[in-house]
Amino acid sequence: MAEHKHGSMDYSVQEKTYAGFMTFVTRVTIALVVFALFLAVFAT
User: Fold this and answer.
1) What is the arithmetic mean of pLDDT over 14-23?
2) DSSP sequence for 1-44
């Protein structure tokens, strides 16, 4: 059988994209929570 070799792919771009995505999701979530609180306080 052939020996298994781990991939040698460079993941730096994927890690950077994932970090950017998580930052985006976090900011949107915070904005939505603030918006919901704003509506809860000021909506009549």
Assistant:
1) 98
2) -PPP-------HHHHHHHHHHHHHHHHHHHHHHHHHHHHHHH--
